[in-house]
Design goal:
The complex is a heterodimer of chains A (about 270) and B (about 190).
Chain A (H helix, E strand, L loop, with lengths): L1 H23 L4 H8 L5 H12 L9 H5 L15 E3 L4 E3 L1 H12 L7 H8 L6 H10 L13 H14 L10 H7 L4 E2 L2 E2 L14 E3 L4 E3 L1 H9 L3 E2 L9 E2 L7 H13 L9 E3 L1
Helix pairs in contact in A: 3-7, 5-7, 8-11, 10-11
Chain B lengths: L1 H31 L5 H10 L3 H6 L12 H9 L14 H9 L42 H9 L21 H12 L8
Helix pairs in contact in B: 5-7, 6-7
The chains are: A mainly alpha (about 270), B mainly alpha (about 190).
Chain lengths: ~270, ~190
């Protein structure tokens, strides 16, 4: 009998070691091989974005008309984002900036529901590919987010407050998992520390868990998913799924995280779990 | 021919009468309720932060200085509602499903205990945020304390990361009682 218990505990200990190893392993071998071969799945999005960058909009202008062939004038721009833009009068992250450019200068209509739906979609031709491409133009440069403008300062404060704000039906905040409990596991998923470890340098990233490219806007909004109630009643319609896209809440959190990543080298598209 | 027309008229009348209240019903709530935009909903969700959540919203995510922990605990304990049938439920199978359905690898949409705790040795995909619950029933813990901890963990451990499942209504009192029964049952896989 004792032998059997010993054996069982040995098997269990082995299992625990194995699970720990699985949890730590960031990239499965087949993806490592792809990376070595230069076949990063995220590069398909960058190529798609490059094509879109040179495609004229409804009024005949393309991104390249202002930003130069192959985005020459945009090199290093992503390393300083999110920042205040005079022409739109607010702080913008990359998604918001692309939308503003397209609707303000390229002739797309912001009130056209069909266009907006296509723009917001992750597998649409505009937002994610363009963001990946423009971000990749800053590769190798150091992140340098300055808080010079009063609007930037205000939004940064809001981001820091939101980071530690315990809200919703699960009493969570961003900070409790990603600052206080960083390094622990939710099931087998390790909790990263985006503030201390400057993970923003790898975003937008291709996440093989969902098999698609994510911008930080997608990431922040999805983090809010599934635990915010807007009235205290347990029914399906009382759930708020995500903060609205391109809203100040999302941009504030992005600004907070990216400012924390100052000094890190941009390396996009990232390849993450 | 005339019969047909008459019949048609009757059917038409019948349809009119039948449809009218339905049409009225469909129109009425539209005028009453204004649909909230996602921005407004999100704003309300943030504004609904309660005073205890607000107290815990600091960089340490713990009770800040100046707030008495014992008063905090007492106030939280006052929110706990107990089920009529006692804190140990009868439906152990339902308790297991809410804790984490072993047929689905320990998944559960509402209890989801395995996200942070280990328990049933068969379920390897368990988190390490909370302590392991293996052998929980043998530790001599009062089932009432277990019930309170699940209903409102802040009554025992203020600002803990463990969601206040009963307080927010994620789990009903009877459902929590079933989970308590599952955790204290000597035959449950947690205690074997």
């Amino acid at each position: 009998m004792r032998k059997r218990t010993l054996l069982a505990s040995a098997i269990m200990a082995g299992g625990a070691v194995l699970t720990a190893a699985v949890a730590q392993e960031q990239l499965p071998t087949h993806l490592k091989e792809l990376l070595e071969l230069g076949m990063h799945p995220g590069h398909a999005y960058v190529d798609e974005g490059r094509e879109m960058f040179h495609t004229p909009g409804p009024n005949g202008k393309s991104c390249a008309t202002c930003h130069g062939q192959d985005g020459k004038k945009l090199e290093g721009a992503y390393a300083k984002m999110p920042r205040y833009y005079k022409d739109i009068g607010k702080v913008a992250d990359i998604d918001t900036r692309i939308l503003a450019c397209m609707t303000k200068y390229m002739g797309y209509d912001k009130n056209d529901k069909k266009f907006m739906k296509k723009f917001k979609k992750w597998n649409g031709p505009y937002r994610v590919p363009l963001a990946s491409y423009v971000a990749s133009l800053s590769n190798g440069m150091r992140i340098d987010v300055k808080l010079d403008d009063p609007q930037e300062k205000e939004l940064y404060k809001m981001g820091e407050k939101l980071w530690y704000m315990r809200v919703g039906a699960r009493d969570f905040s961003c900070g409790i998992c990603h600052t206080v409990l960083a390094g622990k596991r939710i099931r087998l998923q390790g909790l990263p520390d985006p503030v201390k470890n400057k993970v923003y340098a790898h975003w937008p990233a291709y996440r093989f868990g969902s098999d698609r490219m994510w911008t930080m806007e997608d990431r922040v909004r999805s983090c809010f998913k599934a635990y915010l109630l807007y009235t205290k009643q347990w029914s399906k319609k009382d759930w708020v799924k995500k903060p609205p896209p391109f809203s100040d809440w999302v941009i504030a959190l992005e600004l907070y995280m990216k400012h924390a990543a100052n000094g890190a080298t941009v390396e996009v598209p990232g390849l993450l779990r | 021919m005339r019969k047909f027309v008459l019949a048609g008229a009757f059917v038409g009348l019948g349809l009119l009468v039948a449809c009218q209240p339905a049409a009225q019903k469909a129109e009425a709530p539209k005028a009453e309720k204004k649909k909230l935009s996602s921005k407004e909903k999100f704003k309300i969700a943030l504004a609904n932060q309660d005073k205890w959540q607000k107290a815990c919203s600091n960089p340490t995510q713990l009770v800040p200085e100046g707030i008495d922990v014992e008063t905090f605990k007492k106030e939280m304990l006052a929110t706990v509602k107990f089920p009529e049938g006692g804190v140990v439920g009868k439906n152990i199978a339902r308790g297991e499903k809410l804790f984490g359905d072993p047929k689905k690898g320990g998944k559960s949409r509402r209890g989801n205990c395995y996200a942070c705790h280990c328990g049933d040795p068969k379920i390897l995909a368990c988190g390490n945020i909370g302590p392991s619950l293996r052998g929980y029933g043998k530790r001599g813990i009062d089932p009432k304390d277990t019930y309170i901890r699940i209903y409102n963990s802040w009554a025992q451990n203020p600002c803990s990361v463990m969601p206040r499942l009963g307080y927010h209504g994620v789990l009903k009192p009877e459902e929590i009682a079933d989970i308590v029964a599952y955790m204290h049952d000597p035959n449950s896989p947690l205690n074997k």
